[in-house]
């Protein structure tokens, strides 16, 4: 079948992938590569096409993982240039679909891991404003200050962060309208170049990411910037930003620094999670919640509630009128059909007046306690979902406790699945 190329994923465990570490500039260097430029360049020796399937052999090996997207250039046939989903690979070759290209051997070319499709709207030393190049983009851009000089960047005793904002009306790197601000963790150290594991998955309109700031498989934070699939006509500010609201006296190795204070997609009532503007399209960012099967509930008030004693997963019954039902169980594999991005106009914890505004693109929730390592393997053609490939995306649930030195807990790590080979929009 023809596989789409809009959705992409990137992981730190791939050779040639940029490193993320505490020192200034590491985060923007990573985002430059993943969002704008691509990485892992290799020389193509030849491409052999047989009945619509192409096998490209590289001269010194490639930097791909299966199901990533390759960006080919200067190949021996125009139909072999552009972006292609990798459906098989070996140490020096990769296979992709090449419909319409005649059988034969084509020499030469180059390849690399394809970027998501953003551009740098404004730039300065260790600062960027990123904007989607997709014609479907809304009015919101992403500002990242990775200078390590912004007041509070090393809040607490043991953490390094970048200051991140939702912005609009961009004129220059120091001239724009700020809609909302959060922090993205880079490392549990205040300085140094010790690399931390990371995963990014997205399309040309945004991305989800997970960063293991300690490198222990447990200290996972969620740093997200994504344009939502809005349900409202004329909605130019349905973009979500998620990061952390760090405690001033807690190191990143403590849950107060990462999980309970916000670097956690599952945590329902903590942290910095915002949508750029309310439906009125005026003002600044507002807090937001999620609804969907498998979302962990840390707030027991209306309209939420404990599903069962000892388990804190939301049930299908909390989904509001007019929202799609969740998928049924298939061989014990249960997925929420879509996470519903919602907001309350009167605040996070009032439990009233929640509005179903948009869908989280490409994201499925899982009602289970599980440990997912950062070196994840895509799940191919899961039960009940033919022609799908799902990437596990770890997320810390934000329960009380500390990472440092403790044993991993099944109550401490959950996750999501992200669709890789089908377009999100």
For this entry, give a set of tags.
Elongation Factor Tu (Ef-tu), domain 3, 425 residues, 1 helix, 2 domains
Summarize the amount of helix as a percent range.
under 10%
- Give the C-alpha Rg: 21 Å
**What's the SSE pattern?**
EHEEEEEEEEEEEEEEEEEEEEEEEEEEEE
Low-confidence stretches: 247-271, 292-334, 346-351, 397-412
Mean pLDDT, to the nearest integer, reads: 76
Q: Which oligomeric form is depicted?
A: single chain
Per DSSP, the total helix count is 1
Descriptive notes:
- With 425 residues, the protein is mainly β.
- The chain has two domains: 39-113, Elongation Factor Tu (Ef-tu), domain 3 (Beta Barrel); 118-419, no CATH class.
- Helix content is 3%, strand content 36%.
- The chain has one helix at residues 26-37, and strands spanning 8-11, 39-50, 53-58, 69-73, 82-85, 88-89, 93-97, 104-107, 110-113, 118-124, 127-132, 141-145, 160-172, 175-187, 198-203, 206-212, 220-222, 224-227, 229-230, 239-242, 273-275, 286-287, 289-291, 340-343, 355-359, 363-365, 379-380, 389-396, 413-419.
- Strands 1, 15, 16, 17, 18, 20, 21 and 22 form an eight-stranded antiparallel β-sheet that branches. Strands 2, 3, 4, 5, 6, 7, 8 and 9 form an eight-stranded antiparallel β-sheet that branches. The chain has a five-stranded antiparallel β-sheet with strand order 10-11-12-13-14, covered by helices on one side.
- It is globular.
- Residues 247-271, 292-334, 346-351 and 397-412 have low confidence and may be disordered.
């Amino acid at each position: 079948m023809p596989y789409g190329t809009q959705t992409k994923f990137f992981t730190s465990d791939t050779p040639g992938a940029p490193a993320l570490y505490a020192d200034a500039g590491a985060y923007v260097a990573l985002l430059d590569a993943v969002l704008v430029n691509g990485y892992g360049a290799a020389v193509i020796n030849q491409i052999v096409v047989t009945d619509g399937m192409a096998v490209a052999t590289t001269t010194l090996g490639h930097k791909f993982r299966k199901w990533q997207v390759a960006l080919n250039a200067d190949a021996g046939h125009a139909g072999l240039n552009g972006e292609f989903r990798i459906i098989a690979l070996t140490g020096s070759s990769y296979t992709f679909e090449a419909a319409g290209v005649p059988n034969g051997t084509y020499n030469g070319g180059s390849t690399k891991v394809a970027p998501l499709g953003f551009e740098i709207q404004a730039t300065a030393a260790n600062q960027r404003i990123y904007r989607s190049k997709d014609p479907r983009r809304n009015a919101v851009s992403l500002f990242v200050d990775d200078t390590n000089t912004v007041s509070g960047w090393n809040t607490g005793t043991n953490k390094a962060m970048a200051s991140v904002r939702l912005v609009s009306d961009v004129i220059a790197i120091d001239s724009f309208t700020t809609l909302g601000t959060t922090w993205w963790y880079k490392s549990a150290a205040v300085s140094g170049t010790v690399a931390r594991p990371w995963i990014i998955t997205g399309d040309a309109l945004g991305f989800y990411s997970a960063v293991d700031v300690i490198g222990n498989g447990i200290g996972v934070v969620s740093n997200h910037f994504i344009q939502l699939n809005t349900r409202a006509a004329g909605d130019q500010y349905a973009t979500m930003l998620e990061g952390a609201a760090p405690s001033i006296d807690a190191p990143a190795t403590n849950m107060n620094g990462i999980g309970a204070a916000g670097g956690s997609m599952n945590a329902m009532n903590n942290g910095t999670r915002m949508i750029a503007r309310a439906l009125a399209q005026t003002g600044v960012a507002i807090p937001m919640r999620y609804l969907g099967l498998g979302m962990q509930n840390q707030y027991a008030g209306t309209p939420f509630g404990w599903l069962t004693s000892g388990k804190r997963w939301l049930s299908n019954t909390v989904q509001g009128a007019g929202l799609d039902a969740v998928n049924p169980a298939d061989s014990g594999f249960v997925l929420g059909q879509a996470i519903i991005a919602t907001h309350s106009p009167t605040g996070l914890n009032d439990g009233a007046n929640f509005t179903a505004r948009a869908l989280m693109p490409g994201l499925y929730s899982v009602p289970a306690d599980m440990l997912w390592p950062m070196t994840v393997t895509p799940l191919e053609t899961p039960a009940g979902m033919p022609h799908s490939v799902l990437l596990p995306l770890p997320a810390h649930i934000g329960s009380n406790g500390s990472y440092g030195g403790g044993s991993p807990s099944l109550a401490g790590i959950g996750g999501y699945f992200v669709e890789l080979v089908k377009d999100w929009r």
